[in-house]
C-alpha cells in the first residue's frame, strides 16, 4: 500500500476518553471517523431503524415521480424489467459498499474508498463525482418543491421566485448537523410522499380519460407493452430508472453515524425491498391509466384537484428529500475540511461556521442548476449517467475486486464471480457514456421543440415529460 493511499486519515484514539489525535495512518487499520469520548460531540447516534428511514427518504422521493414517464418511453414490460434489474443491482452494490466499509472503517465516504483502492487521484475524481451527483439530485428536489408551490398557489409568482423559496426551505432543513436529528423528520417526509403518490395512483384509476388528454373525441392513449424508442430516448429513460435507486453512495456518511455499523445491511435490505416494490407497483398502475399523458413529476397526472392535494400532502417529503441530498454533499465537504482538526467534533465557532458555509454553498449551486435545467426527469437522468453510474456500479465492482483479488485464480465459482464484477464495471462505463450522450440530445431537442424556455425564465417547465 503506497503512502499516497493513506493520506488525510485521522489516527484512531487510544481510548474512548482520550482526545482525538491528529495524524496519518493506514486506512486499513484505522477506526471510526467519528470518535466517542468525553469532551467531544458524539455523532454516532443513529439506530438501524432510523437509518432505514433515512435510506428510504434518500432513494424514494424523486424516483417514484419520474419512472412512469420512463415507462412510456420504454414500454410497460421493458420498463418493469428495468425497474427490477437496476434496483437489484443498486441493492447488491449498496451491500458491497457496506461490507467494504466495515472491512475498512476509516472510510467515511465513497471518495475514501476510491483513495484506498486507487490512490489520491481516484479519491479526488470520486469526490467530484459524488458532489456532482448530489448537487444535481438536490436541484431536482428543489424543482419538486417549487413545482408543488406553483401548483398550490395557482402560479401566483414567477417560477424563479418559487425556486428561491424552495432553495431556502431545503437549505434550512439541510443545516441540521446530525443525521440523528434529520431522522425524525424523515419519518414524516417518507409518509407524506408515500401518501401523496398513493393518492395519485388511486386518482388516475377513477378517471375516464387521463387528465392531460383531450376530454372529447378520439385521441392517442399511448400505452405500449413494448416501446420503440430511439437510442437517445431509450438510454435516457433507462438512466432515469437506474438513477431512481442509485444514490447508495449517500448511505456511507449515514453509516459513519450509526451506533452499530454492522447493522447496515439490515437497514439497506429493508429500504431497497420497500423501494423496489413501491416503484414497480406505483409506476405500472400510473402508466397503465395515463399512457403517454403521464406527467413528470407524476403527482400532476390525476388532474388539477388531485394535483393540488397530492402536492400539498407531499410538500414536506419533497423538501426533506432535497435537504438530505444537500446535507450529504455538505457533510462530505465538511469532513474533508475538518478531518484532521480538533474542530470536527467540537462545538466551536470554526466547526459551526464551516458547517453552515458548506450547507449554504451546496444549496446555492443546487439552486442554480435547478433553474438552469428545469425539466425534472432530465435532471435525474443527467445525474444518473454522469455520476451515479460510476459511483453506484463501477466503483463497487472495483471495491469487490480489491477485497477478493485472489478470486481470479480460484475455483470456477470464484472466477465467475470475479468476471461478473468486471462486467459490472463495463456496464457502468457504457451507462456513463451512453446516458450522458442521450440526455444531452434530449435536452437539446426539448429546447428546440419549445418544451422548455431559456434558463431562469418564469415559465413552469417542471411538468414536461
Automatic annotation (TrEMBL):
Compartments reported by the entry = Membrane
Q: Where is the Amino acid transporter transmembrane domain?
A: 45-440
Which GO cellular component term is one of those annotated? membrane
Give the way it sits in the membrane.
Multi-pass membrane protein
Extract the GO molecular function terms from the UniProt entry.
Answer: L-amino acid transmembrane transporter activity
Q: Which InterPro entries match?
A: AA_transpt_TM (IPR013057)
Q: Which UniProt keywords apply?
A: Membrane, Transmembrane, Transmembrane helix
Q: Where are the transmembrane segments?
A: 128-149, 161-177, 184-204, 231-255, 267-289, 309-328, 349-369, 375-401, 422-443
Pfam families registered for this protein in UniProt: Aa_trans
**Location (main, coarse):** membrane
UniProt lists the family membership as follows: Belongs to the amino acid/polyamine transporter 2 family.
Write the protein's name.
Answer: Amino acid transporter transmembrane domain-containing protein
Q: Which source organism?
A: Clathrospora elynae
